[in-house]
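[agent] plan:
  1. take the single chain provided in the ticket
  2. run structure prediction with default settings
  3. attach structure tokens to the ticket
  4. add a short note for the reviewer (M.T.)
[agent] executing step 1
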Amino acid sequence: MEESMGKTSEDQPGRYPLLDPLLKEKGLALKGIYKYKDAAEIFGASIRTIQQFVRDGKLRCRDLPARGRFLSEDLEAFLRNSDRGKDDGHNDKAGR
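[agent] step 2 finished; step 3 output follows
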């Protein structure tokens, strides 16, 4: 158990397989709690878009300390569920 102490997210691949590479690409660090502004920066969206994702039930929002709203697991779940390959009625190509 002592081996896992002090390891960073880079040392533990697979914990957030979609979020970790996105953060790395943007030069951002994995945090415990994220605010709307953080989520907007990570996803390259506006704060209003993130708020809409919450209203639509696409992104889980929490009441966390220091005005935090999201955990890493919430952002990972959003990424996992945002696959455009799904037939959700928003595909541009007909017949998919």
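[agent] step 4 note for reviewer: Helices lie at 19-26, 36-43, 47-55, 72-81.
[agent] ticket updated
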